[in-house]
Write a structure and sequence with these properties.
Helix content is 36%, strand content 21%. The chain has 362 residues and is α/β, with parallel strands linked by helices. The protein has 2 domains: 8-176, no CATH class; 180-346, Rossmann fold. It has a 6-stranded parallel sheet with strand order 12-11-10-13-14-15, sandwiched between helices. Strands 3-2-1-5-4 form a 5-stranded antiparallel sheet, with helices on both faces. Strands 7-6-9-8 form a 4-stranded antiparallel sheet, covered by helices on one side. α1 (8-21) runs antiparallel to α4 (127-138), α5 packs across α10 and α7 (230-237) packs parallel to α8. The protein starts with 7 loop residues before the first helix and ends in an 11-residue tail after the last helix.
Length: 362
């Protein structure tokens, strides 16, 4: 388990900055409008270097291939000293390009039936401005980036809340947020699977476990491992609306106080591992000993995950990660997918003897 992946936008911007700081020509493409079905949402970005290297995505791959083909041929002609205009490298103000306008184009570029998207292409973005944006994101700030369409000039401003991309005849504004963060309480086997999947999905992961025997065996290098008491770690972590806290130790001394601390924050997801019985016992403890109420615990999730019949640590981690992503993406899962509800329904079905059949002897 060694795969790590940082926030995709940050990765694109950092790679683009590296190219530009090294004097390479490059462009930044942003999805600004979509019609019908689209493989990538508005606001998605990718960067393309003059040697054909690409990072990020604006489609399923075919549009990237077209951009790479057109622009790398232009860059190659420039290096060769060609004077023709067929593949002249764009520069200066940003430009718009549409893909998938006709059925033939939709088929050619692999767009879904009826799908159309429009990109804004920025040529040779200023590396100094890119460095400022990356530094702000790495510091955990939410940043509004505004591009003046007349000349490509960029202005950065700190934002207080996320906003949808906006574009008009004068400018484009896109809000970039800091990384989504996950704090895992417990460094056991399931935490390794969950941390790996969270890293792969672009979360910055911190794992807290004061138990040395568990920390000693930890082997996910992309995650930050800390040893303080979990409730203190939650307080220092300062969960915000882009943070989730997951307790996995099964030890009330470690999980309960951390979860209570997390419930007092804006974390978008707070949950603890455990069976239906353990979850009910946890809530009862919190109400009896920590002055909680059913209303104050409404955000506490447990048993966590979606019901997929999972039995093994990796399967359970998949179900938990799926639920976290659904909450992150604003998807309201039907109750039948909740672990507790699904198991209750299953138990009822197993205990139902079905219709009675009477055999009458003649």
């Amino acid at each position: 388990m060694t795969t790590t992946m940082e926030n995709l936008d940050v990765m694109v911007l950092r790679t683009l900055h590296g190219w530009r700081a090294a004097g390479r020509r490059a462009l930044l493409a942003t999805v600004v409008r979509t019609w019908g079905s689209s493989p990538r949402p508005v606001g998605s970005i990718m960067a393309l270097c003059d040697d054909g290297a690409v990072v990020g995505s604006v489609s399923g791959g075919c549009i990237e291939d077209d951009l790479i083909d057109r622009h790398t041929r232009a860059y190659a002609q420039e290096r060769a000293g060609a004077t023709g205009h067929e593949h002249r490298i764009p520069n200066g103000p940003p430009s718009f390009v549409k893909y998938g306008i006709t059925a033939d184009e939709a088929h050619r570029f692999g767009l879904p039936c009826g799908g159309t998207l429009e990109l804004l292409l920025e040529y040779d973005p200023d590396p100094v401005c890119l460095a400022e944006l990356i530094a702000a994101l790495e510091a955990g700030r939410l940043v509004r980036r505004t591009v003046r369409l007349a000349d490509g000039a960029v202005a950065l401003a700190m934002a207080t809340e996320p906003a949808e991309l906006a574009v008009d005849s004068q400018e484009l504004t896109n809000t970039f947020g800091p990384e989504y963060r996950m704090l895992i309480i417990g460094a056991g086997q399931m935490a390794e699977y969950l941390a790996t999947m969270a890293l792969f999905n672009g979360f910055a992961v911190t794992v807290c476990d004061p138990r040395e025997e568990y920390r000693h065996g930890w082997k996910v290098p992309g995650a930050t491992l800390v040893s303080a008491m979990p409730d203190d770690v939650v307080a220092d972590f300062k969960p915000d609306r882009r943070s989730c806290v997951v307790a996995l130790t099964h030890d009330p001394k470690l999980d309960d106080l951390a979860l209570l601390e997390a419930l007092s924050t804006e974390a978008f997801y707070v949950g603890g591992i455990g069976s239906r019985r353990n979850n009910e016992a946890r809530r009862a403890r919190m109400i009896e000993h920590f002055d909680q109420t059913e209303a104050s615990l409404v955000r506490l999730r447990g048993p966590i995950g979606i019901y997929i019949g999972s039995k093994t640590p990796p399967e359970i981690a998949v179900s938990v990660m799926a639920e976290i992503l659904a909450v992150k993406n604003g998807v309201a899962l039907p109750r039948v997918m909740e672990v507790a509800q699904a198991k209750n329904d299953r138990d009822v079905a197993h205990n139902d003897p079905g219709p009675l059949v009477c055999a009458v002897r003649r």
